[in-house]
Amino acid sequence: MQTQNQKLLQQISERDDYNMKLVFEGVHSRQMGDNLLMKKRSLERAIQQTKTSDDFFETKVARIEDQLKAYLDQIQRLTEDRVQKIATFENTQKRQLDVRKSSQQLIDTLEEAQAKADRGRLDLAELQIELEKERFERKRVEADLETVRRKAEQLKSHADGSSEAEKLKQELGEYKEILKCIVCHDRRKEVVITKCFHLFCNPCVKGITESRHRKCPVCAASFGPNDVKPVYI
User: Fold this and answer.
1) Which residues are in the RING-type domain (predicted)?
2) pLDDT (tens digit, 9 = 90+) per residue, 185-208?
3) Which helix (H) or strand (E) covers residue 130, if one does?
């Protein structure tokens, strides 16, 4: 702009010199001066418009710079948030991995405890079976002892004036009573309950197994159809 102004001033100076030389051409010179004046005014208006445009563009540039700065700040915040979220996500993944490891360890521990419990149940069942066998043997011995005691008492009470045939007949009757079912007192003992090893006839046990309350008539031990086995006496 300064260069243009200098050129314009130089032209104006040349025009003035020329007008001084062309004094005699007054009308033409005045017209030239008016034209130059009009051009000068046009140039001044153009300069003013250029300054106004420069101010407008400078204001616009300042606004764009402010917007760019705001966008840069927002990008910085978003970048920081992204970094923080990535760190949080990594921490969450680590925690999930730790939780999975702890869960697997708990599952393994639970399976071991379950296996130990199963082995304990099997051992307990075996001990119960052994205990029931011992109870059965003890009851059988007690029954035998009771039979011998009764025989001794009967022999002692019938020692005087009793014949050998009567003693044998009485003894046979006692054995028959022992072999009879203690529920119906009619049929012979045919099956045994393996839970308690008590003997009964098959119809009586069958009637109990078909009912809801499956318990031994002697000791009230619960049993199922698989716990009934045949015996041959």
Assistant:
1) 181-219
2) 888 888 988 888 889 999 999 988
3) helix 26-157
